[in-house]
Write a structure and sequence with these properties.
With 482 residues, the protein is α+β, with helices and mostly antiparallel strands. The protein contains 19 helices and 21 strands. The strands form 7 sheets. A 7-stranded mixed β-sheet has the order 17-18-16-15-19-20-21, with helices on both faces. Strands 3-2-1-6 form a 4-stranded mixed β-sheet, sandwiched between helices. Strands 4-5 form a two-stranded antiparallel ribbon.
Length: 482
């Protein structure tokens, strides 16, 4: 490896798997390779659904061993979940999974103290039953929270185990519903009214800030030669993914696709209107003072759960058959919380179609087409609503993440939005993670410079919209009951 090329380990943890990727960055080069992939299997215990965070940490260590010598390490993961530490810094039990049932009915209790309108005006965060604020409210009377002296979001917890240093990375903190997106600091008034002790959180870090160096024990276990710095990245995986959107201008929308679809715009300031709250848009924080103004959509979780229920058939063949199925025959609301929990997904989709008076899809191909049409329709509505609410128009939609492998979904999204779709990179979160590390070490410039390097080095596929959008408008109206 030449002297002007550096290697960075990106630990990227998703809801179903984790991986350690190695990015090699030079002035005109950006290459990414997978060093190690490991499963992320939640465990249901008598008290509820938990993350096996010890297995995740073991996977991270094994991945760093496989990565070989690197110039820095960065960690990103899903949002909202956390671990609690006691006064000695020991973990008080496995982190609760965001799909655990403990937050059912909790939002109404929160709103009795801080009405939903006030909460949104202060934090800009969409309603989701698993937001950290609701999790902490649900945990209020537990012995574990009473004993806790420190709260670390999942990537911050793993960083602590690697380095012995504690911090709260800002982009992930912005998903807790305890950050003011205007000040980019804690929403002290909200926390105080709800009895949430912000002293539980260590000081805020920004992407690019140093987060310590690997402990001697970690160096010994991974075989790395120290010192190896750990760099704070956009530790919410969506923040890292949006940083890796290969945009060449400002008039773009993005859709981060995977288990979830996160669709919206990159703004300079939050949109905190009541209309924005009613549309369930969120204002999460991104790199360099940006705001990720987006809507959460259930995403490919719907298809993943169906495929699991069908015994894992060949996905390529299933998508081919789905492409031949009748378009827009039946659609469901891909943002409906009825689809949040695991299990019985084909039956729940059938029930939703039946309840709305639409034909019930029968075969796996028909169910798959219903899901992909519904996701494209949800993408269309999110992109339209974001432009209207933010007063900003776009002329291209960037699709990044795992969904870029699904050509049918990308094409349907272009058709539904009536806009060209640029798909790629697939490994957007890992690339954003790597690029923030590289920037912190002086290898790349600002956010525009990061994106320029992506455009020059990553394979991208363009999908042009086919036909008009009238049938999509009709399906949208049908879904709305108009």
């Amino acid at each position: 490896m030449s002297a002007d090329v550096k290697a960075y380990a990106a630990v990227d943890l998703g809801a179903s798997s984790g991986r350690v990727m190695v990015g090699r960055v030079g002035p005109d080069s950006l290459e990414l390779a997978e060093a190690h992939r490991f499963p992320n299997r939640p465990v249901r215990v008598p008290e509820g659904l938990r993350w096996d965070v010890l297995a995740l940490y073991a996977g991270v260590l094994e991945g760093l061993r496989a990565a070989g010598q690197v110039d820095s390490v960065g960690i990103d993961s899903w949002a909202v979940d956390y671990g609690l530490l006691d006064a000695d810094g020991a973990l008080l039990g496995n982190p609760v999974h965001y799909r655990d049932a403990r937050t059912e009915g909790v939002a109404e209790k929160v709103w009795a103290t801080v009405p939903a309108q006030e909460l949104y005006a202060a934090t800009g965060l969409q309603y989701a039953p698993f937001n950290t604020l609701y999790q902490l409210t649900a945990a209020r009377s537990t012995a574990q929270l009473a004993q806790a002296k420190r709260l670390l979001m999942v990537p911050d917890l793993l960083t602590y185990w690697l380095t012995g240093e504690q911090g709260t990375e800002l982009t992930n903190a912005s998903t807790t519903q305890l950050i003011d997106p205007r000040t980019r600091d804690w929403a002290h008034g909200v926390a105080e009214r709800l009895g949430i002790d912000l002293e539980l959180f260590p000081p805020l870090r920004r992407p690019g800030d140093p987060a310590g160096v690997l402990r001697p024990e970690v160096l010994e276990e991974t075989g790395l030669a120290g010192p190896v710095p750990v760099t704070a990245v956009g530790s919410h995986d969506t923040a890292s993914a949006v940083a890796a959107v290969p945009a060449t201008g400002e008039r773009f929308a993005y859709i981060c696709t995977g288990t979830w679809s996160l669709a919206g715009l990159e703004l300079d300031a939050p949109v905190l209107t009541e209309e924005s709250r009613a549309a369930n848009f969120t204002n999460e924080l991104g790199l360099d003072g940006t705001v990720r103004y987006l809507r959460n959509i259930m995403g490919l979780w719907l298809l993943q759960e169906c495929v699991r229920a069908w015994g894992d058939p060949d996905l390529g063949g299933l998508l081919l058959e789905a492409s031949k199925a009748e378009a827009l025959r039946s659609v469901v609301d891909a943002g409906d919380a009825a689809f949040l929990a695991p299990g019985r997904m084909p039956e729940r989709i059938a029930e939703a179609c039946r309840a709305s008076g639409q034909p019930v899809p029968q075969s796996p191909a028909e169910v798959t087409r219903c899901i992909l049409d519904s996701l494209a329709l949800a993408h269309r509505k999110a992109v339209q609503d974001a432009q209207r609410l933010a007063g900003q128009t776009v002329d291209v939609v960037h699709v990044v993440g795992g969904g870029t492998r699904n050509a049918l979904l990308c094409q349907l999204t272009a058709d539904a939005c009536g806009l060209p779709v640029v798909a790629g990179p697939t490994e957007a979160a890992a690339l954003g993670n790597v690029l923030v590390q590289a920037r912190a070490h002086g290898l790349v410039g600002d956010l525009a410079g990061m994106r320029d390097l992506l455009v020059r080095t990553q394979p991208l596929t363009r999908y042009e919209p086919r036909g008009g959008t009238e049938r999509w408008r009709a399906a949208q109206a049908r879904l709305a009951g108009d």
